[in-house]
Amino acid sequence: MNSLRVLARNMSQKWEPLKKVGIIGVPFEKGQKKYGVSIAPAAIRSAGLIERLKEIDGIDVKDYGDIDIPSCNEPVNVDNMAHLSLVSACNKNLSNKVSQVLKDERVAVTIGGDHSIGVGTVDGHYRVNEDMILIWVDAHADINTNKTSDSGSVHGMPVALLVKELSDYWPYLPSMDWQIPKFSIKNLGYVGLRSVDEYERLAIEKYDVPAFAMEDIEEHGIQKSINHILHRIDPEGKKPIHVSFDIDSLDALEAPSTGTPVRGGLTLREAIQLMEIIHGTGRLRAIDLVEINPALGNDADRKRTIDAGLCVLRAGLGFSRRGTIPSGILDLPVQTPQSN
Ligand SMILES: NC(=[NH2+])NCCC[C@H](N)C(=O)O
Ligand SMILES: [Mn+2]
Ligand SMILES: [Mn+2]
C-alpha cells in the first residue's frame, strides 16, 4: 500500500474486528526434518475447523483450500539450508494467496505446515499492509541464518529471512529472488520464548526487539506483556497486526504433538487471553497456526494439540468465553400454556 493510502486510512479508520475470515491450508513440512506437520491442515479441518469457527458470533468463514505444494524442483545448494528451493516455491505461492485473502477484506488464517511458511504469510501481508506489525508467539525465536543455525532447518530461520536489517547477513539465495526483505525488525515482538540460540539472543539485543520470554511473562503476566509489546512497536495503535502462532509456544502438556516441544511454556489460558486482547484491538489481520504435528504422540495427544490450536484461533477471531446472546432475540423464551 502506498504511504498516502496508509495515511488516509490512519486518519479515517476506526478499527473494528474484521468478521470475515479466509482459511488457507499449507501442507508443507520441508522446513524441518520430521514427518507429519504436512498432514496438519487435513487433520485440523476434519477436527471441525470450519464448524468451530462458524460458532463465533457474526462470523463469515471462507475456505480457500490448500495452496499448491511443489513436490520436486531444481535443487539449489546453499550451505546449511535444507530444501531451500522447495521452501521458496511453497512460500511464493503462499505469499500470493495471503495477499489475495487480505485484498478480499478477510482475516488471513493460515494453517501450516512448519514455521518456514511464516516467510510467505508475512511477505503476503506486507505487500498489502506495509505498516503491519508482527507478533511471533513461539518457544523459539526463529531468527537464525544459515551461518548461525545448528540444525540447518529453515523453520528456525523465517524471521531472519524476512527482516531487512538482517539481509546483509545472508549469502545470495538462489530461488528466493521473489522475496525482498522489506519488513523492519522494529515492527516485531516476541511472546513465549524459552529456547533461544546464542546468535538469536545477540540479534534480539542488537536490535532491541521487545521479547517476552517465559520469565518476563511470569513477572508481568500475559496482559501487561502483550500490551507493552503493542505499545512499544505501535504507540498510537494504528497498525494492522499479524500473529504468527507456533503451537510449541504452549507448554508441552497443552500441545504435545509438535516437532520441537519445550516444557515450561504458556498455558492455554494465557494463549487464549493473549489472542482475546489482540482481537480486542480490532486490528488483527492475519494469524498463522503452525507446527502442529498429528503424527507425533498418541490419539489423546493429537486431539489435545489440535483442540488447543482451535481454541487459539477462536479467541483471536472473537469467540467470547462469556458467551453471546442469540442474535435478534431480546428476552428469555416464555412458556406457552400446554393444551392438555
Ligand atoms: N519453528 C520452530 N519450531 N523452530 C525451532 C527452531 C529450533 C532451533 N532454534 C533451530 O534453529 O533449528
Ligand atoms: Mn517457530
Ligand atoms: Mn517453535
From TrEMBL:
GO terms for biological process: arginine metabolic process; urea cycle. PROSITE patterns: ARGINASE_1 (PS01053), ARGINASE_2 (PS51409). Mn(2+) binds at H115, D138, H140, D142, D246, D248. InterPro entries: Arginase, Ureohydrolase, Ureohydrolase_dom_sf, Ureohydrolase_Mn_BS. It comes from the Eukaryota. Pathway: Nitrogen metabolism; urea cycle; L-ornithine and urea from L-arginine: step 1/1. Binds 2 manganese ions per subunit. Gene3D superfamilies: Ureohydrolase domain. Its cofactor is Mn(2+). CDD domains: Arginase. Belongs to the arginase family. This is Arginase. It comes from Vanessa tameamea. The lineage of its organism: Eukaryota, Metazoa, Ecdysozoa, Arthropoda, Hexapoda.
